[in-house]
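Usage

Read records sequentially. Each one opens with the input sequence:
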Amino acid sequence: MASGDDDDPIIQEFDVYLAKSLAEKLYLFQYPVRPSTMTYNEATHLAAKIKPKQQKVELEVAMDTMSPNYCRSKGEQIALNVDGTSCDESNLYSVKMMDKQTLTSIQATTDTSRYAVAVIRKGEIHLTPLQGILQMRPSFTYLDKADTKHREREAANEAGDSSQDEAEDDVKQITVRFSRPESEQARQRRTQSYEFLQKKQAEEPWVHLHYHGIKDGRSEHERQYLFCQSMGTTESTELVKTPSEYLAMLMPPVTEEKVVKPTGPSNVLSMAQLRTLPLGDQVKTLMKNVKVMPFANLMGLLAPGTDSTSVLRCIQQVAMLVQGNWVVKSDVLYPKTSCSPHSGVPAEVLCRGRDFVMWRFTQERSIMRKEVAAVIKLPPEDVKDFLEQMAVPRVNRGWEFLLPSDHDFVKKHPDVAQRQHMLWLGIQTKLEKVFGFSKEDFAPKKDSQADPVHVSGEQRLKSARDGARDNQASLQRDLDTRRKGSAPKASAGANAAASSSPVCVKQEPLSDSEELMDTSDALPNGSLNGYPGSPAGSDPQNGHAAPRPELQDFVRSTFRRHYVLTFSEVKRHLNLHLASLPPGHCPFGAVPDRALQDAILLSQCRQIPVPFPPQIKMASDEQKVYALWESGETFDRYRQILFELFMKNYRVRKNMVLSRLTQELGDNVTKSDVDRLLKDCCTTQGGMWYLKGTMQS
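and closes with the structure output:
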């Protein structure tokens, strides 16, 4: 010590030795429910066994039935409940009395690297590391055995009564199921489950031990192994650590273990904890548990004073509007990494099937389960699960939507209803492409109980289209007659007719595939959805209106993200873009197919004539494939070579792409370039690569 005043003098010095003879066999037993004055040293130990890998120990200790503290009647009653009146070797208590108890261990800590047992002898300290620290507590498995005996007796009595009433056994139907191949994600979930861990623990066999008392000769012999056995041959080394470093080695700083709070079941909510979450998480949690809810009920579950506009913004992120009520989105219930608990079907397929069920309920109040199953082709358990989430079965009427239509919400929030309607149009287009049906296949039935909101909307749209076709035919005849006279007058007459007519008419036939066409999108002054009807707004080369700059910017940005799109996919993206805009903001409104195609071709894109085989049945829009040809990047040449390959065949192999790129661009082509190219423009199935959108489901 540097200081002369030593107030902490050294009293004695010890040599420290590390004993390793019992390093992997030494356990410390603790008895937390037993007073320290009442040890088990004098008790009779009947049996002992251990599972070394799990560090699980069981001790069977005899009870003093002659003690004045022992209740003989209770002991006899417990033995009777456990073993019954029979006398055989399987009985737990052979003397018809509870004369023993079992102590079972649990691990006090999983990290014993800081613990050791020390013994002192003649100025020496001998340390032996601990293998485990176990807490021994009484086991009550005998109560489970008594309960099992009671249930078996009741079952036997019921079986005896039923056998007297029935003359012959009933024939039971047996359902045979074939297991699917287990995916890696399913295997990980299974191996982490409580049932799997319990099964693994049960598989480890017990190792039976012989107990020796504290005063037994064998115990005294084993205690000698607590001393270092090779003291004479061990070379001592001088400790060069400072006192503070040595203390840090002996007692390292304690790191707090992160305790994972157990999560409750997904259908159990604490409103107090729920309201501590952000508003978006509150809405998502509620919708995920309830699945179908009117907006008024949702506001009632949230904290008083919550802004309804903020709630509307949040609810549209996690739910869709069906008959004025909110139904949780499919991708919220089935994330990408999940699968069906019934059949193992991946989440993407489940979402498509559930979206179809939701879309059908936007058309009708009731649907038939067989019709749904015939379209989505999913296992019956999954179809029933979809229907039970949002409908109830009715006799002779199929499945009826769970809640009555909320007309008040639709009237109060028409902008939200219109936006949801546009979203459903985009989803409908995607579903028609995937499942190969037409909405005319599910035309609403003329029923007095049908929902007037959705049925009348379709009727108004159909009526508007029919009226537009009639007006167009009449206007075309008018224009043909006037063109024989003078062209300017014909244009003026067309403008006058367009401005006087209550329905604006395009200068091309209407088609059902133009999902965005609606008379409500017409603009004044003879313009149709931003496309001028006068000759000043026309393209003299094509003979029809030129695309608006806003539309061309949208098409250009879309192809810079996706590179390859079918024409129906372009229309779907346009629908979704319009639905995401604020209410009342519509830069280009309804877009004719011809104008959309012109915008694509004017955005440095080309149509790829993919040579589909005649046996492949695809919609006409699906066979129109457009690709970004020039974007100003050095990678353009890579894509052009790939597109030229698809002009000769509708599918290619990866080695073919690599060979062609190497032939055209030299040896500078790397594997990462090929991977990026195929990832940007293609999808794969069965070792073959297809342009995006051209592979049939």
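Summary fields computed downstream for this record:
- Confidence is low (pLDDT under 50) at residues 257-267, 445-457, 486-543.
- The first helix runs from residue 72 to 83.
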